[in-house]
Amino acid sequence: MKPNVEGIGPVIQRLREEKGWTQAELGVYARLGASTVSLLESGKRKASARTLSRLAVALDVKVGELFPREEALRLPLDIDEGRYNDFKFYLRALDVEELQRLGTELREDHGKAVEEDDVEKAADLYSRRVLVGKQIEDLEPPLAKITLRRGKPVEVAFYREPSETELRDLREKYPGYVVVASPVTVHDL
Fold first, then answer.
1. How many CB atoms lie within 10 A of CB 55?
2. What is the pTM assigned to this prediction?
3. 39-54 confidence digits (pLDDT tens)
4. Which residue, of 72, 101, 119, is where some domain finishes?
5. Which of 83, 82, 77, 106 is nearest to 94 (CA)?
6. Is residue 32 classed as helix, strand or coil in its secondary structure?
7. Closest Cα to residue 133, out of 161, 91, 93?
8. 95 and 48 both lie in a single domain
């Protein structure tokens, strides 16, 4: 049985209202349209994994917190990385492309385990997916962390030196953004 993504509407609405945001504001912060937020909250649209991730980041919660409590119980808890030392050692031998393939396989297997209601297996596969994601980020870090706050400028913390194309895209998407806590020097913003 798959998690009931239709039940997330009231949870999203409650979290949004707790922040004092309109649907349009949540849409901006989550990079979704206001109509998408409205459809999700009313249960007329199902959320994809990408949409859930964007909502969780915007609302500053874990993806599991978007689900009603009975559905959230089906999602794996935080992982104990010490238990996966051999797996982490194995991951270090893989390149980014191999890690991405492995991540896809683990995601598919995790989905099957959830459908089969095998909670222990689902939790294990989810934990392995998290570790694969961390290894990919170590090898190929994301450009930056974007922080959106109501009524304040967008903050960008770069993880690596951006290309000219990436800088142009950032300028277009977030005019007047502010660079904070950047480990790299970025000129000409």
1. 27
2. 0.41
3. 999 888 888 778 888 8
4. 72
5. 106
6. coil
7. 91
8. no
